Amino acid sequence: MTPLVDNGTTLNPEELRKMNAYWRACNYLAAGMIYLRANPLLREPLKPEHIKNRLLGHWGSDPGQSFTWVHLNRLIKKYDLNVIYVSGPGHGAPATLANSYLEGHYSEIYPDRSQDEAGMLQFFRQFSFPGGIGSHCTPETPGSIHEGGELGYSLSHGFGAAFDNPDLIVTVVVGDGEAETGPLAISWHSNKFLNPIRDGAVLPILHLNGYKIANPTILARISHEELESLFRGYGYTPYFVEGDDPETMHQKMATTLEHCVLEIRAIQEKARSTGNPERPRWPMIVLRSPKGWTGPKEVGGHKVENFWRAHQVPVLDPVTNKTSLHIVEDWMRSYKPEELFDETGKLIPELLAMAPVGPRRITANPHANGGLLRKSLDLPRFEDYGVKISAHAKAMESPTAVLAIFLRDVMKKNMTSFRVFGPDETASNKLDGIYAASKKTWLADYFPEDADGTEIAPDGRVMEMLSEHTLEGWFEGYVLTGRHGLLSTYEAFVHVIDSMFNQHAKWLEKAKNELSWRAPVPSINILITSLVWRQDHNGFTHQDPGFLDVVTNKSPDVVRIYLPPDANCLLSVADHCLRSRDYINVIVADKQPHLVFLDMDAAVNHCTKGIGIWDWASTDDCVEPDVVMACAGDIATMEALAAVAILKEKFPALKIRFVNVVDLFRLMPEEEHPHGLSQRDFDSLFTKDKPVIFNFHSYASLIHKLAYRRTNHANFHVRGYKEKGNINTPFELAIINQVDRFDLCIDVIDRVPGLQATGAHVKDWLKNEIIDSLNYAHAEGIDKPEIRDWTWPE
Prior knowledge:
By secondary structure, the chain is of the alpha/beta class. The chain is about 35% helix and about 15% strand. Strands 12-9-13-14-16-15 form a 6-stranded parallel sheet, with helices on both faces. The chain has a 5-stranded parallel sheet with strand order 1-2-3-5-4, with helices on both faces. It has a 5-stranded mixed sheet with strand order 18-20-19-21-22, sandwiched between helices. Strand 13, helix 15 (about 500-515) and strand 14 (about 525-530) form a beta-alpha-beta unit.
């Protein structure tokens, strides 16, 4: 059984009185945010016109969260703790907002929401109101690094914040509804990756208030023994604070929370003094309190407090129902605001003194505005890691293997502020060169055979776990508190974090464009690899390049997509992304050996432009071309080049312009994206009326979406993945999706006036080549040698 904490009289009567009064003030503000548009201190009888016309917000978890916050404040002051707070319950912002307001930090950021009656009224009016703020802990909320719009990520964000922050305690309140999500369920295992020597601590508090929107919660309806066994099985020491009497609960929480903080300190001191990071059993708390605690017990004959009806707005019709209006008034007056706020509307001095001061205030902690702590990476010269070539498209190198050597030295130079994340695929993705700088973090058990290639260590900086959700959550928590990193994942399964990407993009858009007080944070860098065109053995299930479509739906101010065609271009792109701030950079680069098209100098110039003509592959020689051959992506580029080589041989007089795209958003108009090309530059590259054959890594429709407003869009013929595949050879897969060199040549013949008749014999030969290639693949299991070993014929 879990050791019992002495729940006696940790608080003396005066401490108890003040803490309970401060908690009442928090609850009063939370209720006021939901209901009031006038009469903020109830200095006159409550009238219908004082109530908001639309009642929005969630009350149920707020009292329990503020209860936790008040007790954290006591310990921050007593032990000079460095604490941030992550609110997991959905729509749980009123608690954080109320505490930020009482701490004074909210008024420092938003002076019109001052600590007086007029400011309190503005504070109430803004909540869930047009032109105001939402009911989640949005970026507008001081102290927040976790929006909470989608449930399941609070704990992984908390652990990400604790990594490499040895002095920080991250208190994560996990909602019991949130605890039913898959991402949250697996993130409990993050404790196996937290090193007590170099990292901070995470104190999870599972807030069991029993209900979701309209249903009981699973963890609230299992036995105490089963719940305790669950968390002991996860590797924690769980402590229980349960009840509904405020006085008793304050004493229990004060004792238990202090015990947990001292236990965390003891764990860290032991590990740091002995140098032994052996995985401890970190403490966690189960807080079981009534849903909607201290609110109305019953409304209209229906149970409210400690039932699902307290989840959102407990009393729905106070404007039109006098009985309901009286219930709201009695409820809010039960907090005795006249005892809490002075005649100006400011919290009385003895309660003001309950909060920490300066950056020790939870909502003013700089870790929750991580850009304030951000330091640029110390980056080596990426050019020094380039592949030296003597000719275009002759040498073969794995782009990610080349990148790994650069990342190895990035890590060596930044051993407290840079991590690499990936779901059990660092070696598979040819990034294992990083291990020369640091192994994979691991604090669970070791076996002797692990010494033979497992590459795990308690002080590793490569974060591997077979949960993309948890990895992305760690990464987001890490960058939002000011540090840097890169996440690599298989292309087909980056979709697992589609909605996480969406949430972070929305956070960045708000923070970057609307909140000058939020300092820029390092970018999220996502390396998509193990790409669609080289799924030789995984087959159809691993063929999905559609994440790029998801990315293009987000604000152009915060998303970037790069498709470096070779290893040297990947180095240039990676360096740029690691230096950037306030973006989500998506990099598409394969792990298999690919041709190196450009030397390092040319790669830097090309990536700097983001799009450009490759003169060495073109035949238009500064005159108007007959056709533009365009491409984006490694295999797409190789096949487009191979098509040009065939066309040069078969039609020597044909004028071809070869255009490669690295920065996908260059295709958009400059009015729609900061990286977009002007119309004049676009027309210069793609002409106003010539056929454009565009070979694309992903789904063809995306190119049309980006370029639909362009002058020559009607002449764009895009080839891309068509959702056709199986266990194919690389070239067979290209053929069945018609991104192969032969089909591209046919497209040119079909679309260039004059070739439709004269090119008939060549077209027939191309069709024969397609048939022969497919037959060879099915007979031999590999592609023909002239396909496998193709290089640019200079």
